[in-house]
Design brief:
16% helix; three-stranded antiparallel beta sheet; elongated; ATP-binding; two-stranded antiparallel ribbon
Length: 75
């Protein structure tokens, strides 16, 4: 699942691919936004960890990536 994270005072958003489901990601983000967790901590599909302070989150966009078509096939 593709995750886009907007951070306050940062010119670019953070984009990562996660192996978690939408429900699991939503619960992690909700815990960070409710003040229970000081950091939003996510691990991408390559094993890299992203840490964002919860009070600096602008938005989190959860969505499926668009599939890229490669080659010459019948559409």
């Amino acid at each position: 699942m593709e995750v886009k994270i907007g951070v306050q005072h940062a010119p670019r958003e953070i984009v990562l691919e996660s192996d978690l489901s939408a429900e699991e990601l939503e619960s992690i983000v909700s815990a960070a936004l409710s003040g229970n967790e000081p950091l939003l901590s996510l691990t991408d599909s390559k094993g890299r960890k992203v840490l964002v302070p919860s009070d600096r989150l602008s938005y989190v966009d959860l969505g499926e990536p668009t599939a890229r078509k490669v080659g010459f096939g019948a559409l």
